[in-house]
Amino acid sequence: MVKDKLMFMIGIFGLVLLFGMAIYSSFQFDAPYDSHLTQKQYNDVVLEQNVQLVFYKKTCPYCRAAKNAVIKAASKSDYPTFYINIQTKEGQKLVHQYDVNKAATVVSIRKGVIKSYLYAKKNNKGDFTANKQAIKEAFRE
Fold first, then answer.
1. Which of 27, 54, 66, 99 has the lowest CB atom count within 10 Å?
2. What is the pTM of this model?
3. Stretch 33-50: mean pLDDT, rounded?
């Protein structure tokens, strides 16, 4: 009984190993450059894309005050929204790439045109609040 189970497990392991080797050998490691994504495809896919990038910082009072309004607007948008934590290494790269100066920023990209909006502000009482007009503009079509 134990021997049968052991043989079964060895058989499964062998099949998985063979399957993995078949997939590995099917990749072309010397593929020419022209079969990869090109600069034109990058421009078509990335720069001409319609997206929103919502920058935030977990400890930012502006970000926290407008979080629900931004999430609601993003959920109604036809375009994808990416949330970028500026306290991460990857987030810092995008902060520099899009010249973001404040954590509570939405970068809207429409057909390659990039615009930035501050999605939160202080009202005249000194309270942090959502900047509804900026959010509306940032998430419009």
1. 27
2. 0.67
3. 60
